[in-house]
Amino acid sequence: MSKLIEQLREKRNLTDEQLKELIETDGYDKELFASAVDIREKAYGRDVYIRGLIEISSYCKNDCYYCGIRRSNEKAQRYRLSEEEILECCVTGYDLGFRTFVLQGGEDPYFTDERICDIVGKIKKRFPDCAVTLSLGEKSRESYQKYFDAGADRYLLRHETAGAEHYRKLHPAELLQEKRMQCLRDLKEIGYQVGSGFMVGSPYQKTEDLISDLRFLQELQPDMIGIGPFITHQDTPFREFTSGELTLCLRMVAILRHLFPEVLLPATTALGTIHPSGRELGLLAGANVVMPNLSPVGVREKYSLYDNKICTGEEAAECRGCLENRVASAGFQIVVDRGDRKNFK
Ligand code: SAM
Ligand code: FES
C-alpha cells in the first residue's frame, strides 16, 4: 500500500497538500477504492440502505444558477403533490421494503410549516417503524424545530460548496453561504441526523474548493454526506458548462469514506445519470446508500434538476427491482431497515 493511503487510513486525515495530490491524480484510485470498501465493510458489512425519494414540489422561490427548477426557468413544469399522493407513495414504498421516506422539493411557500408538520405526523403515525427525512431547503430554526417535534428524524441540506467565492458564482446574491451553514448547525443542535454535501465538477470549482468542502464537513461532522456530479441543464445559465467527471466523483466518495468511516454515503442518482453503472461504481468506492425514486411516474420528468435524469419512466417497483440487481452485481445486498447512522446518539 502506498504511504499516502496508509496515512489516510491510519490518521483519517491528510494535509491540504496531500489531499490535493490525491484529488488531482488517478494513480491511487485502485487502492483508494479498495480501502474505502474495506472501511465501509467494517462499519456496515455488505448492507446497502435504501431511501424512498418523494419529490413533493417542483416550485422553488430560489434561483440557483445550476438548478433546472430554479424560479427563472420558465420552461420548467411545475407541480406539487397533495398530502394523499405523498401518503400513497409511502404505502407503495412500505410494501416494497422501504423504511425511510425522503420528502424533497424546491423551496415552495405552499408547503407551510403547518402542512409539513401535518404530513410528517401522518407518515409517522401510519408507519411508526419508518424514518422521515426532509430536504426542503433553508428554513428558520423555529421551523426546523417544529418539523422535528412533529416526528422528522433527518434533514438533508447540501452546503453545495464551502468555497466562499465559489458559492457566489453558483448562487444569486440573495442566497448567503453563512445562512446555509447556520441552518446546518441549527439542524444538528436540534437533534436531527443531518446530511450535507456538495456537487463535484460544478462550474468554476477548483481543487481548493473541494478541500474546503472536506474541511467544512470535518468541522460539521454530519451523519450523511450526499455528493454527485454537477450535470448541465439546458435551461439554466450554466447550459454551456460540461458535467462533472465520474472518476473525480468516485475519488471524492472514497476520500469521504476514509475521513468519515461511519457516515451514510449515497451512490447518487446523478452518478447513475453520467454513467450507466455510476451507482454500482459508487458502492465500489465506499458508498452504502441508494435513493430510488418513489414519486408518482406522472410527475417524475417535471422534477428535472438536470438533463437526462435516469429512472423517470419506471414505476417504483421496477426501480426497486432494478436496483436490487445492480446492488447485487456489485457484491452488496439491499436490506429492509431504517438505516440509521451507526452510533447515532
Ligand atoms: N431545495 C432543497 C435544497 O436546496 O436543499 C432540496 C432540493 S435541491 C434541487 C437538491 C439538490 O439537487 C441540491 O442540493 C443540489 O446539490 C442538487 N442539484 C441541483 N441542480 C443540480 C445539477 N444541475 N446537477 C447536479 N445536482 C444538482
Ligand atoms: Fe430551488 Fe433548485 S433552485 S430547488
Automatic annotation (TrEMBL):
GO molecular function, one term: 4 iron, 4 sulfur cluster binding
Residues bound to S-adenosyl-L-methionine: E160, R180
Pfam families: Radical_SAM
Cofactor: [4Fe-4S] cluster
Protein name: [FeFe] hydrogenase H-cluster radical SAM maturase HydE
The keyword Iron belongs to this UniProt entry's keyword annotation: yes
Chain sites annotated for binding (3R)-3-methyl-D-ornithine: S135
Binding-site positions, [4Fe-4S] cluster: C60, C64, C67
Xref: PROSITE patterns: RADICAL_SAM (PS51918)
Cofactor remark: Binds 1 [4Fe-4S] cluster. The cluster is coordinated with 3 cysteines and an exchangeable S-adenosyl-L-methionine.
Domain Radical SAM core, chain residue ranges per copy: 46-284
Keyword vocabulary terms for this entry: 4Fe-4S, Iron, Iron-sulfur, Metal-binding, S-adenosyl-L-methionine
